[in-house]
Design goal:
8-stranded mixed sheet; globular; Rossmann fold
Length: 261
C-alpha cells in the first residue's frame, strides 16, 4: 500500500515548455493527500530555489539531489562535498582549464562566470545564477558548505574531469548543458531513506517519479519507480513503469494505472 510519493520537479512536476505544474498533476497530489498519502519533492534544486510549484504544499523536501533534506523548514539531513574535492577543483580552474562552474549551497547558487549557454539554462528553469567576483576566495570561505557542483561541459569533458578532479564524487546529467557533481554513494535515494525513517514509512510503501539522470537512484530505490514519457533512456531502462510525458498528464495517468488514486 503506497503511503509516500516522491516527485522530481523540472521535467516531472513542472513542464519545460510551460514552466508550470499541470492541472492534472495538482489534482493528483490533492487526491493523494485526501487519501492520507504523504507527498514529497525530490529535486536537484536547493530549497530556497523551489519557486515553480505554485501553491502546492508538500510534507517534506529532498533537495540538492538528496544531500539536503527537510520536513517543512526543519533540516533532517545535510552532507557536503569533501574539502579535498573543492581544493582540487580550484587548482584545476586556476592552473589548467577554465569553464563555467557553479557551486550549490543551501544559501544559493554561485558561479565563476556566465556564458550565453548558462544564461539559456537559467532562463529555461527560471533560475538566476549570480556570478561571484572573487570566486576562488569565495569557494575557500564556504568550503564546508558546498552541497553540489555543476560543470557546464559536454559529456566527454565531464568524463575527463571526473577522473582527474573528483576522485570521491560522481556525476549525473539531467540537462545536456551541464552535469551535477555530488559525493559518491549519495543521491535522491538517500533522501528517500531519511524521509521515510522520519515518518516511520516502509520502503515497500513508496513510489517515485522522475525524468533525468539524477533521478535514477531514486527510481531504482522506490518500491515503484516511474519514468516520465519525456525521461531520458537511462531512466526509462530502469523504471518499473513508463508513463506519459509531463505535458500529457503523466503523473495523474501513472497513479491511476496503479490504482493509487
Amino acid at each position: 500500500m503506497i503511503k509516500a510519493a516522491f516527485f522530481d520537479i523540472d521535467g516531472t512536476l513542472v513542464s519545460f515548455n510551460t514552466h508550470k505544474v499541470s492541472d492534472s498533476s495538482k489534482e493528483a497530489i490533492r487526491l493523494l493527500k485526501e487519501k492520507g498519502i504523504k507527498v514529497f519533492i525530490a529535486t536537484g534544486r536547493i530549497k530556497k530555489h523551489i519557486n515553480n510549484i505554485d501553491d502546492l504544499v508538500f510534507d517534506g523536501y529532498i533537495t540538492a539531489n538528496g544531500f539536503d533534506c527537510y520536513i517543512g523548514d526543519k533540516s533532517i539531513y545535510r552532507h557536503s562535498i569533501a574539502k579535498e574535492e573543492i581544493y582540487s577543483l580550484i587548482d584545476y580552474l586556476k592552473n589548467k582549464e577554465l569553464f563555467p562552474c557553479s557551486i550549490m549551497m543551501n544559501s544559493g547558487i554561485f558561479i565563476n562566470y556566465v556564458t550565453k549557454e548558462v544564461e539559456e539554462v537559467s532562463k529555461s528553469i527560471n533560475l538566476p545564477i549570480p556570478a561571484v567576483d572573487n570566486y576562488y576566495s569565495f569557494l575557500e570561505e564556504n568550503i564546508d558548505n558546498v552541497l553540489q557542483i555543476n560543470l557546464f561541459v559536454d559529456e566527454n569533458k565531464e568524463k575527463q574531469l571526473m577522473s582527474k578532479i573528483f576522485k570521491n564524487c560522481e556525476s549525473s546529467r539531467w540537462h545536456p548543458a551541464f552535469t551535477d557533481v555530488n559525493t559518491k554513494g549519495g543521491g535522491k535515494h538517500i533522501g528517500i531513506d531519511k524521509i521515510i525513517e522520519y515518518y516511520g514509512i516502509k520502503l515497500e510503501d513508496t513510489i517515485a517519479f522522475g525524468d533525468g539522470g539524477n533521478d535514477i537512484t531514486m527510481i531504482e530505490h522506490a518500491a515503484i519507480g516511474v519514468a516520465m514519457g519525456n525521461a531520458n533512456e537511462g531512466v526509462k531502462k530502469i523504471a518499473d513503469y513508463i508513463t506519459d510525458d509531463v505535458d500529457n498528464d503523466g503523473i495523474f495517468n501513472a497513479l491511476k494505472h496503479f490504482n493509487i488514486i
